[in-house]
TrEMBL record:
This is Cytokine-like nuclear factor N-PAC. The lineage of its organism: Eukaryota, Metazoa, Chordata, Craniata, Vertebrata. The keyword GTP-binding does not apply. Belongs to the HIBADH-related family. NP60 subfamily. Pfam families: NAD_binding_11 (PF14833), NAD_binding_2 (PF03446). GO terms for molecular function: DNA binding; NAD binding; NADP binding; nucleosome binding; oxidoreductase activity. GO terms for biological process: transcription elongation-coupled chromatin remodeling. It comes from Muraenolepis orangiensis. SUPFAM superfamilies: 6-phosphogluconate dehydrogenase C-terminal domain-like, NAD(P)-binding Rossmann-fold domains. Residues 2-126 form the 6-phosphogluconate dehydrogenase NADP-binding domain. Keywords: NAD, Oxidoreductase.
Amino acid sequence: CDLFIQEGARLGRTPAEVVSMCDITFSCVSDPKAAKDLVLGPSGVLQGIRPGKCYVEMSTVDPVTIAELSQSITTRGGRFLEAPVAGSQQLSNDGLLVILAAGDRSVYEDCSSCFQAMGKTSFFLGEAGNAAKMMLILNMVQGSFMATIAEGLTLAQATGQSQQTLLDILCQGHMASTFVDQKCQNILQGNFKPDYYLKHIQKDLRLAISMGDMANHPTPMAAAANEVYKRAKALDQSDNDMSAVYRAYIH
C-alpha cells in the first residue's frame, strides 16, 4: 500500500476498516472463494457496512456468488453493484478496461467518475448477476480462442510450416487483432510473463461451463479448451500468461 499512501490514501488494515472509512468500496480478487471470504470472513466487509455505504464487486465470479454477496450487503442496509472488468493487466494500467455493471443503478451512477478513470467504457446490464454472466461468456470465448490459436501454431510447427508466417497471414486477414498479435508474439518469443493469468482464464472457463450446465445449454468448445488449460496447469503454467496454454500442446 506504500505507493498509495504516498499519494494521500489512508491505510485500512482489514476489509471492515476500509469499508467503515469509505462511502464506496471496490473489490477485485481472484475467485468466488476469495470474494466471499473478503465479505463474510473475520473482520470482513460485513463488519464495516452501514446503511447507505456502497460495495462494488469487480471480481469475475459466478452469478450465484454475486446473489449471495448482494443479499449479504443489502440486508445490512448497504448498496451493491457488481462491475467485473474485461481487459488485461496492461489495459488496467492504462485505464482502458471495459466495465460491465449490474445491480443498483444509483451506485452505478455514483461510480461514474471512478469508472471513467479505470476504463474506456462501461455498460449497465440490469439486475445483479447479469454482469457476471456476460463476463463469463466473454472470457469463455477468449479462453477458447486462445487455445485454438495455440493449437494452430503447434500444428504449423508439426507440419513444417513457419509459425511467424502463420502470424503474418493472420494479421493481414479478417481475424487481425491486437489480441492475436500479442499472444502469438508471446508464444514465438517464449515470453509468458502474465498479463492475464492462465489459472484465472481456466477458472472462468470452469465457471462458464457450470453456468451452461445450470441453463441446460451445451458448451462443448469451452469444455475442450478447459481440458487443455488443465493440462497446462499440470505443467506448472498456472502463474504464467494464458498464452502459455501453448505448452500443453508441446509436452
